[in-house]
From TrEMBL:
It comes from Prunus mume (Japanese apricot). PANTHER family: DISEASE RESISTANCE PROTEIN RPS5-LIKE, LEUCINE-RICH REPEAT-CONTAINING PROTEIN 57. InterPro entries: At4g27190-like_LRR, Leu-rich_rpt, Leu-rich_rpt_typical-subtyp, LRR_dom_sf, NB-ARC, P-loop_NTPase. The keyword Acyltransferase does not apply. Residues 1174-1263 form the Disease resistance protein At4g27190-like leucine-rich repeats domain. Keywords: Leucine-rich repeat, Repeat. This is Disease resistance protein At4g19050. Residues 6-144 form the NB-ARC domain. It comes from the Eukaryota.
Amino acid sequence: MASGTEERIKKILESLKKDDVTTVVLDGKRGVGKTWTAREISMQKDSIFHDSLWLYLNNKYDSKSLHENLARQMSLFSIHEECEDDDVEEEEKEILENLKLKISKKLQDVISAARKNNKLFLLILDDVPHEQDAEEIMTELKKLLNPNDISCLKVLITRDQSDGKLTAKGRNEEIRTSNTRLCNIYVDQLSTEESKILLKEKVKKEISDSPSFEILSNFIVERRKSMPNEIITIAKALNYIGHIDSGVWSLDSVFEAAANDAEVAINLLFRSWYDTLLSDVTINCFWHSVQLFCKHVGVHYNELITHWIMEGYVGCIDHIEKAYEKGHDDLMKLIDRGMLRKQEDNMVIMGGMVSSITDQRRREFNGTANLGLANVFEDDKWEGLGRLAHADGMIKSPCSPKTWEKVLTLLMDGRSLGREVPERYFRPLQKLQVFTIFNPRFKSLPLSLTSIKSLSILVLRCCDLLEKIDHIRELENLNVLEISGATCLKFIPNNLFAKMPHLRSLNLSESKVTSLPSSLFDKSELRWLILRGCAQLETLPSLKSFKNLKVLDLSGALSFQKFQDKTFNPLVKLQTIDLSNSQINRLPFLHNLGGLTRLLLGGCAHLTRLPTLNTLPRLQILDLSGATGLKEMQNEPLDGLNVLDLSSTQISSIPSSTSNLSDLYLRDCSKLVKLPVIKAMKKLELLNLSGSSNLAEIEDKSLEDMRFLRVLNFSKVKVKALPSLSNLVNLRQLLLMDCSCLEKLPEMAGLKRLQELNLSGCVALVGLPDLKAFDKLEILDASGCRDLKEIQDKSFENMSHIQTLNLSDTRIEFLPSVPKASNLRHLVLRNCQNLKDLPPLDHLSKLEELNLCGAINLNGIKAEFLEQMVHLRILDLSGTPLTKLPSMSRLTNLRQLSLKGCSSLETVPNLEAITLLEILDLSGTSIGSLPPLNIFSNLCQLLLKDCSRIKELQNLSSLRCLEVLNLSGTRIEKFPYEISQLTDLKHLDLPDLKSMHAIDLGKIKRIPQEVNCDKGGIFECADIGGDKPSISVSGSTIFQFLDENPQLWETKFKRFHFSVIEKQGEDGDINGCKDELFFRDLYSYTRHFPKEHDRSLEIHGSYSLPKGFESVLQHADYTSLVDNDRISCLSEIGADNVKVMKGCWIERCSEMKSILHGEEADVRLGSSLEILWISNLPKLSSLYNGKEDLECFKNLKHLYLDCCPMIVSAFPSSQLLENLEIFHVQFCERLTTLFESDSPSGSTLKKLRTLYLLELPELTRIGIKLQAQVTLEVMECPKLSKDHLDVDDRFSK
């Protein structure tokens, strides 16, 4: 520790040792190290303190919060215990007094323990408001103690002090008050030397020993003005980068840059630190925190996680617990990196210097958040979410069942509310201020919710059933409103926002509204207007009243065409305009928008011109990618621009004055023939011209001044030669994939920091440059360079960082040696047919993938080196002349083993040790047996084609993950009936079935999507066993086979049950819906279908008839259609296809509007029906809407109608159903009559035996006269009276 720091700590300790000094106050500017100093004192070795207690006051103070903080930190209660102790009838004063008694006793106990050890007890109050009088705090604390205890209690206070608050004399003084003294100590910033020592102490030794560390240290201390918090954060960044030390950015790169330019090194450090955030979720949480901590010194970690959940960073969730766990995981990632810091009392603060990182994402905070909570309350009108707890599937203000009405903040998912009566649930919550619900299942909002006048934030997310929101108009205090994912919401009342003068954030994403209410457009306090994915919205009225608007987001509004405003001049605070993927063809004028930083117009294919942009001084990101109608940009100065994306436009030139540009994207610009002039863009870091296939000319010196360039991508361009690259000293990635005309590479000796060189697909390239200088290279990919014959010897020997080496499909004969201290993970030499020899590979202990597939001339290959490759995950030696393998016992991490075509290989020693295998390909080998397959529980593909010595497989049924099984060419003697248990199996290749023992078709319960047989079909070779074959089918192969071999219907399939349970694929096949319904419980419909039915077909999901499917329909007596969202009428499956159908079950077919239409085809279809079961058809309005054709349902005997909410009458006439015996109707909420035109006195159903009516609230009449033999059951049909029936004692309610 530096001498000055030691002196300060020593002085503070000396003051605290004095008997008559109870309090030391550390004053100073924010960031100078007051909290750090207090922490150092509390952690002193051989301390004078027996114990210490830390309270973080977050720049707020009042008596109640002080005592509650004390109680929590002393573990006097958990949040839940605290809530249970509350009594609704107790006054606040009584509660506080009881709390003081508990604190007093605990404090006296800990101070007594300190006294027994002749030591002191230290209480640290961190971040006290600077205007707060320390003596007032001490007065509160003394009330909790006995007079004898005061001498053992020492209080250390930190507080921010503004300039001039303390005089020079008063910066370090002792103030006598009553019988004690209060000592003020002013904490000044560290000296330069102290800062250097602190940085060196906090970084790891291997980092501080680097020769460039001193240069970097000097620059850091000079730039950051010796702020300890920021120095500690930089140290954490250095340590973290040093720990992972991989990827495009590394610590070596930082130190190399420091030797030449310390500022570049610092920027590189923070960029590499930031780039360790691999997840978009974590990145979004990070930037939200940056925004939040601009206005708040710290927040409790529960509140921060809840912010992230509310902003939608963890996605649309079904379980609050999962969302909280995800948020907590991301919090720990940020804390591990030092970007956030967690205090002793669970408060979270931002690490120093983090705010200096620039957010260069297209959609930064303004484009990724759903609500903007971090900045819509910039004037501090909002006090935050308050103290929170997560339990019982909710995040809420702490409360007990007795104090439910005190809840201020509540987050829940629809699953939790589903257990409650919503109207009753919200009634007590009249103090609720923040309410968020995910996946609510209500169609309209409960009145008790919309009557809560205190609501400030209301979030209804993923509310796909919500149809009506009229009553929200009563929430006059709303600041933030989100109603997103309301796909059923098509209309919003014009006066909805009339009583919401303070609305600041509105999110209506993914609604189906075509216009917005006029009452919205006078809301002058609105900051955020989010209309993402409002696909029906075409235009917006004038926005001129939105003088505080910061974010306007219409991304994904696919029909949006224009604004009413011709200019956005009044929107002076606008920061983000996002119209991505809209139909906008012309923008309003953008003058006077001094704060606009992002203009996002990606995918605006109808945009043909831009307004003047040089009036936007702070514009940083301009995205025009996919604006295919844009042919030119005005040549105007855009010197503030950082990112310009013109990908997939028709431009042929770009503005010349863009001197601060860092990222330039010109992907797929087909009109670009010559590289535009970019010499002035000296700060360029990324240049991407990939896919600009007509680009053939690049000026020789166009890149020579770009010392900041990191990424250069010329993939798929037609240049034959590149300009000199030697001056690109900071280049990390050079990407030249599929440059089919590129014949040679330029001199590249200066690219000493290059980490990725990708030349894959450069088919004309005949040689590589000298690679010895590329000692930082991590990825070298020259795959597909088919004219590449030679690589210079020793080319790789300096590449100690190389991780991926791919030379597939080249013509090399020899591979240069790989460095001894190798980090190589992937060595891929696929289809190197000229390769004759390999260098020693024994030292590649970190290798994870080795692919020598197709190296057919690799003579004398000895595979002993494999024993050292314990991290190997992929091993492909297919097609090599391999004769022997070493023991596989150490390759326990192997996931993929491919030995296809190694015809001389007879065994794989210790194969059973590789228990994690997912792919095993032994095709064409001479292997004679496999170990029991239950060892390989993760196996997805088992390929044994032409393994002619294999006769059996043990425990095949244990391979529950198996998707592909190839047994063709094997000599397996028994049919593998276990395939019926392999529910993931999609592809099956079978051997010659004629050589097998008798096959029992009755034992085959399931057939995968694709089945191939060597000789003869599976059904030709099988006998029928058991009652009848019941087979679950995953594809159309079986139906095509039966269509081509119709004789099988009479020989093998006189009786059958086929279950097709997959949904329609793009190729017309029936594929892919993995489900547990492989054998549906047939009881639900066989109780109504006769037990003796011989031929049945069950179809789950939507489909169109693939080739051959008609054949099975034509032979099925009983058919079920379940979960079909395509057909609207039964006849659409083809009347001639189902002419023998006697029974039909139709369930959850969402588009079905009528069963039959009465056309000729319908008559043929319906005339054979005997049983019809209809259930859960939400759009069904009639069973029959054609003319009264007496033939249509003439043979119908049993009719079941269930849960059809739109149907009003079942049939136009009873004459259609002359043979009906059972009629069962239930849960049809709009049904008013069974038969429309008949009068009860004149019509009867002579064969009707049973009529069952259940829960038909609107049913008023039946429409026929019931005969005496009819058994009648009526329940919950309130409008159906005896007067409407010619019955008496058979009628029951």
